[in-house]
Amino acid sequence: MPPRQPTEKERNIRDRNRANAKKSTGPRTAAGKTRAAMNALTHGLRAETPRDEADVEDRARRAALLADTLAPEDAFEQALVHRMAAAFQRLEKADHLESQAIDSAAQLRATTPGAIVTNQQRVQTGFAAINRYRATAQQDLFNAYRMLEVYRRERGRDAVEVREMPNEA
Length: 169
Known about the structure:
It is built from 5 helices and no strands. It is mostly helical. The protein has one domain (51-169). The protein is elongated and about 75 Å long. The model has no long low-confidence stretch (mean pLDDT 81).
């Protein structure tokens, strides 16, 4: 049986889509290309490296606190501690973004009653993304912790010896 031929309507739709796609070439100026390159860096939850100096300092502080608590003995354990610090930082950012989303949802609802459905969909999409990022960060944290436990057991140490958490002064 020969393949089905597209209808006139389907051919018109296909031709319109192709003509429209030729117009969609993305940013053309250097400023537009730079701005488009930064699209993925809106919040930093998926970033492997910190976005700015404040994030670098925060992650280093978290890693130092975890190192004081977990007492890593070699470079591998230290790398796992840094991985846990990054995961903790992403979890805190997810919490912060969630509270921002709740605040903005309340403002949108109060100021634009006619657009409640659209705003609700936008908020639900944002919460879903935040929860995916949170789940990934939690999984990274638990995986690093499990790796630390297994590594220490294989080296003859009993599980993870956790010291008392120092006060953040």
